Amino acid sequence: MLARTLLALATLAGAFGLPPPTIAYSGDGQFIIQKVDFNRNKTIAGLVSPAYLPGAKSTSAAPKPAKSAIPAVDAVQDATPAVTLTPAWDYGGSKKVRGVNIGGWLVAEPWITPSLFDNTGDNRVIDEWTFGQYVSDAKSRLQKHWDTWITENDFSQIAAAGLNHVRIPIGYWAFDTSAGEPYVKGSQYSYLKKAIGWASKHNIKVMVDLHGLPGSQNGFDNSGRKGSITWPNDSNNSARAKKILTTMAKDFATAQYNNTVTIIQAANEPFMVGGPSNMQSYTKQFFRDAYGTIRYDAVQGAQSNIVVGLHDGFEGLSYWSGFMPSPQYQQVLMDQHIYTVFSPQEVSQSKSSRFKQICSHRNDIKNNQGNLWTVIGEWTVAPTDCAKYLNGRGVGARYDGSYPGSSYVGDCSTKTGDGSNFSSSYKAFLAQMFATQISVYETGSGWIMWTWKTEQAADWDYQRGLAGGWIPKKLDNPSNVQC
Asked: Which helix (H) or strand (E) holds 128?
């Protein structure tokens, strides 16, 4: 097949008095015929599916070649039979994803572990960038945090709670600080692999989430650096991220990990509804490139069955209709995050309005499930933004009016903390929030709640929810669903 394609290209090149073509990987799951004019370095041909290259398995996951000036490429594109890839978990099946995020561990967040940041004694430390920048013993502090915040016992408890997935965030700086970033580049990746081992032991599937990208994809502290979004300002940012995805894809495609790591998520919460003008186009192209990286770079001469995870970029699910369509692309999953606490209108709304807002997602999720597998990969039972530092270290809450420009709605002291002062009626409301959301989100592939545990935000804490009774161990047929 390759010979026929090259013969046709060579014939066409000869007709133009040009040297024979060469082939290079385009980075998006396709190969490009290039360099037919060494003097002008132009490309005159189109994209060629990996199915036409030696050693590659033909599969319907391989994007078809683009229309080009070379008829021979299109003439042979349908000649090879397809192979359907099978993931280690059927995200389109009847068994639903039920999981928790391992938040605040390998990507530290001030609101999940306030003491880690407060104990620095430096108010300038608001994220991992400033942690590395201003804390002289940052590496040893973070090492202790990695050692103690999450252990195998957590995975044992997660499994005992009837959960089958975890989503584990990790930042790009765990792999690469080559641009001179002050982050601590330590042993985060080793801890991630250790956690995957614990997950395997307890029969839990893992979604590995590249939570922070070079340049920050959203300007949030959970991207590693709070402030400006410069992710799409430099093509090297995408190249660095793809290199990290290649590293993980190769490692997690091996027999040791492949049955446990079922999803690699290319990016968390890229802020596509704002930021630089090229944010949408840059990130969508990165997603295409990430697909090629995860699918084709992981296994020599074959294709990886790891699911490629995307994020909706806050655009909403319908925005992605027709993106990465089957059968050209296989095993693509869309992650959406649903919160009802990050605006004055949301924290002040009535219970019935809040449930109406949550229930309105049911049809969107159901419809998108037919387009891309859909998981609600972050959500909470919390109805307020009262948790300490939730809006950033040193920043107040909208609910009690301490957030800049907000107005008082109520007292935060009974809405967050360790949960010991929660009233029975508030716990009953949290139980309704849990039951209603899992019912709605299982319209798609399922859900992964944010987060497993916190130091002092019980309203966001799955572990404390179990102990406090507003999260049940029995997850089938939830009661108290409000829609």
From this structure: helix 128-134
